[in-house]
Structure formats: C-alpha cells, structure tokens
Amino acid sequence: MTTSASLPADSAPEASGDPSVTDRLVGANRQYAAQFTDPGMDARPVLRVAVVACMDARLDLHAALGLELGDCHTIRNAGGVVTDDTIRSLTISQRALGTRTVILIHHTGCGLESLTEDFRHELEDEVGQRPAWAVEAFRDVDQDVRQSMQRVRTNPFLPHKDDVRGFVFDVHTGLLREIDPSS
Ligand SMILES: [Zn+2]
C-alpha cells in the first residue's frame, strides 16, 4: 500500500536472517547496561531546562548543546512544534519537575517544509478518515520558531515563561542561530 503519504514498502529492511534493527539496538543496550553505573540522580533536570526540538535524526541534542545525562528534559516531535501534547509535557516539566527555562530548536532542511496540510486530505482519501491533528507544515522556519515561542509564552498552564528562546539548527554546520521573537 503506497501513497504519497507513506514511504514505499520496499524501503523496509528485508527479513533475511539478519537481526532486525530492534534486535541490534537491544544488543547494544546489553553492552551499555554492562558498563552502566547508577549516577543516583532524581528525576528533576539538573539545569532546570526543557528543550523542545524536531525529531530529525541529524540533530544530536546532547552533543550539540554540551548536555550531560540528567541535565534537561528533551521533548521531540516532527518539526519541534508546540502542540497540545508538547504543552502537556512542558506543564509537567515545570510544575512537577522544576524546570524554569524553555529552549525551542527547529532546523534547516526540515521535512515539514516539503509538506502541506494536503497530507491530511491524502490520508483521508486513503483510509477514510481525516486525522484530528494538524500537520503543522511550514514554509518559513524562522516564522515557525516565532510562532512556537508565542505559543509557549501565551499558554496559561505554564508558570515560567520569562526565559523562552528559540533557535534554528543548521544541519550542515552544526551551529544554532537565535531567532528574534519580535522581528
Ligand atoms: Zn525537522
């Protein structure tokens, strides 16, 4: 079943006796756990920061921001957009787990720039129902970061909105570029 809303079926790995990707990752976890020592942290992020970022595979948040285990909450989705579910996580992050700073990170070359809300209509044509969620596609990444900052700053559930900054990560240089919320 192939539509413009899904990848071709032949892009999936073949089952040819090789371990599946999940089996490979579970194997890697055994090695990780063998060397793991419990740092004895509690659940509150050390730096009291929550990072909202795109799920893009080229963005290694911990490496790109010099973060260590336990430093921050990372909330990721397609686009790094501030949806109701992002607000749910940020509300819990601030009210139950003590974070005070919000950093928003979108990036160059995001998959959402090549989509439109037609994606939802294509899904409807294929499966007979339209998803309740918006695709949150965008054309101007700077403007989308501004909109995300605005959604955080105007949300009534979040008590800490003074320290909210937004950036675009360049997937070719690794550099963050800050977005001025007012321009
Ligand atoms: Zn992206």
From TrEMBL:
Q: What is its EC number?
A: 4.2.1.1
Can you name one GO molecular function term for this protein? carbonate dehydratase activity
Q: Give the reactions, separated by semicolons, that this protein catalyses.
A: hydrogencarbonate + H(+) = CO2 + H2O
The record's comment on cofactor binding reads: Binds 1 zinc ion per subunit.
Q: Which residues form a coiled coil?
A: none
Q: Where does Zn(2+) bind?
A: 54, 56, 107, 110
Enzyme class, broadest EC rank? lyase
The record's region (Disordered) falls at 1-21
- Record has Metal-binding as a keyword: yes
Please provide the record's keywords in A-Z order.
Metal-binding, Zinc
Where would one find the signal peptide in this protein? Answer: none
Q: Which cofactor does it need?
A: Zn(2+)
User: The organism sits in which domain of life?
Assistant: Bacteria
Family to which the UniProt record says this protein belongs: Belongs to the beta-class carbonic anhydrase family.
Q: What does this protein do?
A: Catalyzes the reversible hydration of carbon dioxide to form bicarbonate.
* Protein name listed in UniProt: carbonic anhydrase
Organism of origin = Streptomyces subrutilus
